[in-house]
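From the methods appendix. Each design record in this collection lists the tokenized structure first, followed by the designed amino acid sequence. Records were kept in a plain field format so they could be parsed without special tools. The example shown here is representative of the layout used throughout.

RECORD:
FOLD TOKENS (309 positions):
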């Protein structure tokens, strides 16, 4: 396992590429064929330097999704399947296209008695709407991360959610989900270039995207000197990145979230278009006051194994 410095700055060539996409006019994305976009299709050059290394059948996906939902006979498209691509420039990388408890969305948007400052003389309280639309940027699942020290605290971590662990492990059996950082983006937000090097494990990292599209930049230290070796990928809702092998410790970041790209089936979430009951027995009409929250969001679930044991 590599020992890398969590405080090191990314290579200048990658920083420059990141800044270019951070400032990019989004109308130019469709004609930017340096971006790997699986929905648009790979270019001839991208096809020559990539290959399908794994596939998951509709039957397998249905079984995985059933375990995730806790429902035996879920409705699942018979022609649905997932494939994983590996690119020559990033060895080991794969790209896949594929509740019952109280929620923040149970709170009415103008509720002002939930988020109170520790020091009322310095800070003002804010409403649930301000929290979910402006303040909420990330949360952690399972093992908690010390952002100042860039390490995981000692002791037993909180349990990782079982349903999500079943889903992740079903798709990526090579790793054991133990911790996750859930990022919540709004167009205009970015994630700086960084490496995930604080885990005592070299098992792969899983990153799942939901909602609006994001431009993802990834490159390794050894290859970053030649900008042509750095990958730029357009991640759409439902896409997954699996960083393993040489790409496990690659630099990566999100310089751009593309507005107005949330798929139609997610735009009204957490409300349901018809207000029907959900699989766990809740009436989704209770979330009507948060309708369309997801339409301007990108949610990214970054899952990792903290230790080999």
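DESIGN:
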């Amino acid at each position: 396992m590599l020992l890398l410095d969590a405080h090191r700055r990314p290579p200048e060539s990658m920083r420059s590429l990141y800044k270019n996409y951070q400032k990019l006019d989004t109308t130019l994305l469709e004609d930017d064929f340096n971006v790997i976009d699986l929905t648009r299709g790979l270019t001839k050059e991208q096809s020559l330097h990539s290959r399908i290394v794994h596939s998951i059948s509709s039957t397998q996906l249905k079984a995985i999704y059933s375990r995730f939902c806790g429902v035996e006979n879920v409705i699942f498209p018979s022609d649905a399947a997932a494939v994983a691509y590996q690119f020559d420039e990033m060895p080991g990388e794969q790209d896949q296209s594929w509740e019952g408890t109280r929620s923040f969305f149970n709170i009415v948007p103008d509720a002002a008695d939930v988020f109170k400052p520790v020091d009322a003389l310095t800070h003002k309280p804010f409403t649930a709407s301000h929290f979910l639309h402006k303040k909420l940027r990330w949360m952690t699942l399972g093992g908690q991360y010390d952002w100042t020290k860039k390490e995981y605290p000692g002791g037993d971590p909180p349990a990782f959610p079982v349903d999500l662990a079943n889903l992740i492990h079903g798709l990526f059996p090579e790793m054991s989900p133990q911790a996750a950082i859930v990022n919540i983006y709004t167009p205009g937000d970015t994630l700086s270039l960084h490496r995930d090097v604080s885990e005592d494990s070299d098992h792969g990292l899983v990153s799942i995207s939901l909602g609006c599209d994001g431009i993802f930049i990834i490159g390794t230290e050894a290859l970053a000197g030649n900008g042509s070796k750095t990958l730029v990928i357009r991640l759409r809702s439902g896409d997954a990145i699996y960083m393993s092998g040489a790409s496990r410790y690659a630099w990566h970041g999100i310089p751009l979230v593309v507005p107005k790209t949330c798929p139609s089936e997610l735009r009204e979430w957490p409300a349901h278009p018809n207000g029907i009951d959900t699989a766990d027995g809740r009436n989704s009409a209770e979330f009507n006051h948060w309708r369309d929250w997801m339409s301007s969001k990108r949610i990214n679930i970054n899952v990792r194994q903290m230790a080999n044991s």
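APPENDIX NOTE: The CA atoms of residues 141 and 180 lie 5 Å apart.
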